[in-house]
């Protein structure tokens, strides 16, 4: 600021001094007569008085005009400051998802048909669990979402079950003194089918598998390690849970055993009249049902294998163009 003021004062001083015929730079006088004022030519000299008979003197030569002062150099403008870097926006939190689930425990349809009403154990006092499928596969200690106990009618309910971190889906597990631990897929967040949505439900069927049925199945298949090694018990059914025969189950890299009505291994390459099958997956497997002119819900099912656990898989088929 002091430098700019100095330049400004100097400029004003030069302009003021020029009014008094003084330039801001020094010049020499003319050879004859008086030096001109800055920028203005000098006046001619007076003629001298001649002597007697003499010649009149010549007029004086005009003075050379003085040069104007040189203007001062303009000051350079200051450099602008650099703008600050914008802050990064915060990450949004994950929205909490709490759901209400209610339903009833039921005996697996195939087991109920084999055992008959007299052979079915009581459904009271069974433990029902909701488990995060992805966390369970990863062996995470917080895979269990919630658990409850069935009432005298086998009914259960969950209030505000936390599905916030569910990614692969939720499985429902049933276990009790006279039942094998069994699981069934409850919902799949990647599915567009409303019946598989991970939201509130009031109609859940939690199928339970009695140990008495497991003992019969192992004996008929000649495999006493079936349960200890873990296996999938599947069934293709119609809308009313009636068996749907002649359905092929695709399970790449795995063997599918189609069950005959007496629970022995069938020689057929598709489901028999009971619609049932058994798979002992090699790790995580995907089951895909196929039947001409039918669509299934779900269209496929990811299944695993855990020691002492029966993984149940149900495929509900619907005819595409049913006959009138």
From TrEMBL:
Residues 1-21 form the signal peptide. Residues 28-95 are annotated as: Disordered. PROSITE patterns: PROKAR_LIPOPROTEIN (PS51257). Keywords: Signal. The keyword Signal applies. Residues 32-93 have a biased composition (Gly residues). This is Uncharacterized protein.
């Amino acid at each position: 600021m002091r430098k700019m003021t100095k330049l400004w004062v100097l400029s004003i001083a030069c302009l003021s001094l020029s009014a008094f015929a003084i330039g801001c730079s020094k010049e020499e006088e003319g050879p004859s007569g008086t030096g001109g004022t800055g920028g203005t030519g000098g006046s001619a000299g007076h003629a001298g008085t001649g002597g007697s008979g003499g010649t009149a003197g010549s007029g004086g030569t005009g003075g050379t005009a003085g040069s104007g002062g040189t203007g001062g150099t303009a000051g350079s403008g200051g450099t602008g400051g650099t703008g600050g870097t914008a802050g990064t926006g915060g990450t949004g939190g994950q929205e909490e998802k709490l759901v209400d689930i209610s339903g009833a425990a039921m005996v697996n349809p195939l087991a109920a048909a084999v055992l008959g009403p007299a052979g079915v154990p009581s459904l009271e006092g069974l433990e029902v669990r909701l488990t995060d499928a992805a966390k369970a596969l990863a062996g995470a200690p917080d895979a269990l979402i919630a658990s409850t106990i069935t009432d005298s009618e086998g009914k259960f309910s969950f209030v505000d079950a936390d599905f916030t971190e569910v990614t692969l889906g939720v499985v429902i597990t049933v276990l009790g003194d006279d039942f094998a631990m069994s699981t069934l897929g409850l919902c799949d967040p990647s599915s567009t089918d409303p019946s598989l949505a991970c939201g509130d439900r009031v109609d859940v069927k939690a199928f339970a598998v009695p140990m008495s049925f497991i003992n019969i199945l192992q004996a008929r298949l000649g495999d006493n390690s079936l349960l200890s090694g873990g296996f999938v018990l599947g069934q293709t059914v119609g809308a009313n849970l009636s068996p749907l025969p002649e359905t092929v189950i695709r399970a790449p890299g795995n063997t599918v055993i189609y069950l005959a009505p007496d629970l022995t291994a069938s020689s057929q390459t598709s489901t028999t009249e009971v619609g049932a099958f058994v798979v002992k997956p090699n790790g995580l497997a995907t089951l895909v049902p196929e039947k001409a002119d039918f669509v299934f819900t779900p269209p496929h099912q990811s299944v695993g294998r855990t020691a002492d656990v029966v993984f149940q898989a149900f495929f509900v088929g619907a005819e595409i163009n049913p006959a009138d």
